[in-house]
Amino acid sequence: MRLAEAGWHTTIAARSAEGLEQAVARARDAGLELHPQQVDVTDEDSVRALFDRVAADGPLHLCVNNAGANSSRLLVKPARGDRPLQRYPLADWENTLRLCLTGVFLTGREAAAAMVEAGVPGTIVQISSAARGGAYGQSGYSAAKSGVDALTRTWALELAGHGIRVVGVAPGVISSEALHHHCERDPRHADYMERLRERIPARRWAEVREIADAVLFAAENSYLTGTTLEVDGGGLPDRV
Ligand SMILES: NC(=O)c1ccc[n+]([C@@H]2O[C@H](COP(=O)([O-])OP(=O)(O)OC[C@H]3O[C@@H](n4cnc5c(N)ncnc54)[C@H](OP(=O)(O)O)[C@@H]3O)[C@@H](O)[C@H]2O)c1
User: For residue 178, what pLDDT band results from cuts at 50, 70 and 90?
Assistant: First the structure.
């Protein structure tokens, strides 16, 4: 919505047709137009088909790699009472890397291919995270986001000659509907998040718009490439 507001012809893509419809309706209520497309970023054929359909609207100038989800698990959780020692499940690790890193690889690769083929300059913006330097209980997520930063730097080097910039945006915790619902459903989580918030230098979460503004800045600042903008209120604590 922030991109559309700034005048970009904007496609939004996700798996759920219903979710897309809701987003389009919300934008329409705000006087904005979004063009919905279904995609699963973890599926190579689905991503290639998305970029083929988007090309029908004209050359691609910007791709924001946003799809991602956090998963919180300790590497090992010691045995307690009758419960045996627990290991970080391999399936969680693989699913997180598949969505948060392979998904970015596939969409970034197809965006670059579309821009190079069309011979137009463009920008790829990748949503990283303040967790990317390593974060307590987040082996898969922090490793994936660290990988996203590595792709940002690598692709900036490889694509600069084609006039393509690649920029990361690394949010701290965002004050999203999902966060509020989770906290309402689970008082223990709400308590944890409150303690976390108190230890962020800015003492508050990011507003969604503050992250969207950073994406817009990354999209429009023509000398910015190969770097990740930290939009995290001063950073997250190592542990709460
Ligand atoms: N929220 C935070 O506090 C926070 C902090 C730092 C970084 N981030 C990063 O910001 C990005 C967005 O996070 P968010 O909190 O806004 O998450 P969100 O509300 O869960 O939204 C994620 C979006 O990705 C889509 N998606 C998920 N899996 C997909 C797939 N396989 N293929 C295509 N689309 C898929 C979802 O739609 P469907 O389910 O319909 O596919 C949804 O639209 C993520 O990269 C996240 O890591 C978030």
Answer: confident
The pick from 41, 66, 200 for probing ligand 1's pocket by mutation, whose C-beta has the most ligand atoms within 8 angstroms, reads: 66
pLDDT tens string 66-100: 999 998 999 999 999 999 999 999 999 999 999 99
What is the fold, at CATH topology level, of the domain defined by 39-71+95-231?
A: Rossmann fold (3.40.50)
H-assigned helices in the chain = 2-5, 17-29, 44-55, 90-97, 103-118, 139-159, 177-185, 187-198, 208-220
Q: What is the pTM of this model?
A: 0.97
Percent of the chain with pLDDT over 70: 100
Q: Which residue CA neighbors atom 37 of ligand 1 most closely? A: 14
Atom of ligand 1 nearest to the CA of 173: 3
- How many other CB atoms are found less than 10 A from the CB of residue 211? 23
User: Which among 129, 132, 189, 229 is the best mutation to test ligand 1's pocket, defined by most ligand atoms within 8 Å of the CB?
Assistant: 129
pLDDT at 208: 97
Q: What is the pLDDT of residue 12?
A: 98
Residue 141 a catalytic site member: yes
Domain borders along the chain are 39-71+95-231
